[in-house]
Amino acid sequence: MTGNLSFFSELNKRVGGKVKFGDGSYVDICGKCSILLVGKTGEQQLLTDIYYIPSFQSNIISLGQATESGCDIRMKDDYLLMYDDQGKLLMRVTRSKNRLYTIKLKTGKPVCLQARIDNENWVWHARLGHLNFESMKQMVKNNMVVGMPKVDQENQICDSCLVGKQTRKPFPKSATFRATRALELIHGNLCGPITPSTLVGNRYVFVLIDDFSRFMWTFLLKEKSEAFDTFKRFKVMVEAENSEKIKTFRTDRGGEFTSHDFNRFSENEGFIRHLTERRNRTILDTARSILKARLDPSIIVSKFEDEEDFDATRYRKIVRCLRYLLQTRPDLAYSVGVVSRYMQNPKQSQATLIKQILRYIQGTLCFGISYTRGKNVLVGYSDSSHNIDQDDGRSTTGHVFYLGTSPITWCSQKQCTVALSSCEAEYIAASAAACQAVWLKDLISELFDKEIQAVALRIDNTSAIALVKNPVFHGRTKHIKSRFHYIRECVDREEVSVEHVSGVKQCADILTKALGRIKFKEMRELLGVEDLSVSSSKFRG
């Protein structure tokens, strides 16, 4: 237990409850996660299931919980010794005068793969789906991968593994039974439903593993009910290839494996049924780790990085194609805007960003904007990210305008001057959005032959709104160029009305900065970009 929030790199706030002490008092649990401890040699050890208690002033390690996780605790003379499940010494603590065991531990941060991508050990770790280093060493030893270099054991933990592979309880170090020949024991499990589904509508992954060879087969299914027929085809295939019969089939207790048809089939075919589960977690851990590394918003690029150049002609060709795609994909506006800043002399890091964008596009080919009929109400959203560019410290402007419920124009652009505060950055962004609002107002008025009322421009910064509405606020605005005060004139002429919107409803947020995977998905839906494959028509109404 700890009250220091800085110890955690990730915190599961869904875990709650209370802890009772010997004097009958209670304290509230506000989350649970893991902490990385750093030894004297720099080696990292993961301490799991740590409760976060804000009112707690001390840090306590439960010896009972440590023994449950496989640790060996020994007390002799004036010392407490803690060993891991492999007999390695973790801690040696001297008993204090009040008969407590107090130790000063150093916490650390997991390895960021983007920062260690030049290290072959970490490159192969990511390439093999965040496989542990011990297994990688065995692959090299047995010549299982062509071209794989010798891998040294790393004493640190990958940040993506830490987030993607967190679990409640470790699995046993070794199985109680291992097969001695092929098909003697087959493990099976069904994972899903997975969101989003594949392009052809598959939502489940059916995994089958031979315990002897550890060979794994995966089948994509649309429904859980397809598992039975898939297993029957699998049985015929592998028994013909190996000239052996499946002796035992081990699965979980899911209804797809305990149905009357499946039980009758096993009795008729003469194989034994076992019930347990493991492989799906391995697959999901790998997927989560890869996704976490691929969509990490903390990636920083700069034109001053000392690294290898990338083919400028090829780089510009790809970026031009991406910019053409922005006509229908506003969710790409910020990322494509970033890579467009390095057309003159692109580096390998900028080329890596392009690859990430292309991978994202490959997975969202059916995404776009759906337009519906409704009231022709024009509404705009304006936002900015302050001092986000690493080269010149400039902020990024983002705005999007909706006619009814659908976006009709959007922009993500680096500001032309350095803002001294987030308020000033929002003010500059709002002025740019006001120019667009006035032009759209005049255009729509001409198209529909009627006067359009003042365009509502929604901003999530109250200080910027106050700056717009208070023209005598001279101390905060005297250094701002006069052309950015255009929005004040628009408000005075009642062409634009400024409104406040909460950050969670700020549609332009996705146009100003890189976001985490979950946040990005939420803001993409809020922006109006959706999966058009689930609709009967791209244009409804």
Question: In words, what does this structure look like?
Answer:
- The two termini are 56 Å apart.
- 30% of the residues lie in helices and 20% in strands.
- Helix 11 crosses helix 12 and helix 11 crosses helix 13 (486-492).
- It folds into four domains: 5-107, Beta Barrel (Cathepsin D, subunit A, domain 1), CATH 2.40.70; 186-277, Nucleotidyltransferase, domain 5 (2-Layer Sandwich), CATH 3.30.420; 312-365; 368-534, Ribonuclease H-like superfamily/Ribonuclease H (Nucleotidyltransferase, domain 5, 2-Layer Sandwich).
- It contains 14 helices and 20 strands.
- It has helices spanning 63-68, 120-127, 133-141, 159-164, 227-242, 260-269, 279-294, 312-325, 333-339, 348-363, 422-448, 462-469, 486-492, 517-527, and strands spanning 17-20, 26-29, 32-38, 44-51, 72-76, 79-83, 89-94, 106-107, 186-191, 204-210, 216-221, 248-251, 272-275, 367-369, 378-385, 396-403, 406-414, 455-459, 496-500, 529-531.
- The protein is α+β, with helices and mostly antiparallel strands and 541 residues long.
Number of helices: 14
Oligomeric status: single chain
CATH architecture term of the largest domain: 2-Layer Sandwich
Number of separate domains: 4
Net shape: globular
Q: What do we call the CATH homologous superfamily of the largest domain?
A: Ribonuclease H-like superfamily/Ribonuclease H
Tell me, rounded to a whole number, the average pLDDT.
81
**Largest beta sheet: strand ordering:** 11-10-9-12-13
Quick tags:
single chain, five-stranded mixed beta sheet, 541 residues, 14 helices, alpha+beta, 20% strand
